[in-house]
């Protein structure tokens, strides 16, 4: 499950996650809008609105910096090509042999 997939098909991906966790949604839960409710509660817009995420700090870093636009590819506005290459190398090294796709 990748961020791009979640953004493209949020309903399908949250149902996939529930199935993976072995807590699939019942037909009744889906019909009653539970998937939509969860998506709203977990939305970036909602999470950004919590006072704790506007004012608190973790390791001297404002929590609000963890909430940007939530757009696929927005990282390109923050990372240089050198930083991108470095991260790619680290991720490839760490995921090597895991079966996870990068």
TrEMBL record:
Keyword Transferase tagged: yes
Keyword GTP-binding in annotation: no
EC code(s) of this entry: 2.8.2.-
This protein's UniProt keywords: Transferase
Pfam families listed in its UniProt record: Sulfotransfer_1
Highest taxon of source: Eukaryota
Record-linked InterPro entries: P-loop_NTPase, Sulfotransferase_dom
SUPFAM superfamilies listed in its UniProt record: P-loop containing nucleoside triphosphate hydrolases
Entry GO MF terms: transferase activity
Sulfotransferase domain sequence ranges: 1-99
PANTHER family: SULFOTRANSFERASE SULT (PTHR11783)
Family designation: Belongs to the sulfotransferase 1 family.
The protein's name in its UniProt record: Sulfotransferase
